[in-house]
Amino acid sequence: MIKPKTILTVFLVLFSLHFLSIFRLWYIYLPWIDIPMHFLGGFFVALVFLWFMDIGFFPRGNWLMEIIIVLGFTSLIGVGWEFFEFSFDFLASLNSWHIIKSQPSTADTMGDLFFDLLGGFVAYFYFATSYFERKIKSYL
């Protein structure tokens, strides 16, 4: 079972790194920082969704359906984030206070979505495998 403390810890790490990356201009000077941020973001989103499954808000099924649903939810949030970045770029260009583009290219967007999904995939296999192991042991 996923503990709320684990979710809070991942959130605080993600939020702190994002805050530092914005105010220390790491997104400009260390453009690779975007990769682990999207990985952590996907990991966090999948973690939250798996927690909702653990508490019974969403039913647990077989592993294939679960991973499809978890990755679908992770991609939904990832695409929403990409729309947010695109909107920020658009509004910033209208106001002439545009320092750096959040969306420099389509390749960057695809890379961001890939790492969102990879983070969700890792979270699912890390936490869901323990669930299925417990379920198998309960039958033995």
Uncertain segments are none
Compute the number of helices: 5
How many strand units?
Answer: 0
Largest sheet: none
Q: State the secondary-structure class.
A: mainly alpha
**N→C terminal distance:** 20 Å
Helix content: over 70%
Please give the radius of gyration in angstroms. 17 Å
Order of helices and strands: HHHHH
The average pLDDT score comes to 88
Question: What do these coordinates show?
Answer:
This protein has helices spanning 4-23, 26-29, 34-54, 63-95, 106-139. It has one domain. The longest helix has 34 residues, at 106-139. It has 140 residues and is mostly helical. The protein has 5 helices and no strands. 80% of the residues lie in helices and 0% in strands.
Topology:
Layout: H1 4-23, H2 26-29, H3 34-54, H4 63-95, H5 106-139
Feature tags:
140 residues; mainly alpha; 5 helices; 80% helix; 0% strand; elongated
Q: How do you describe this structure in short?
A:
This protein is 80% helix and 0% strand.
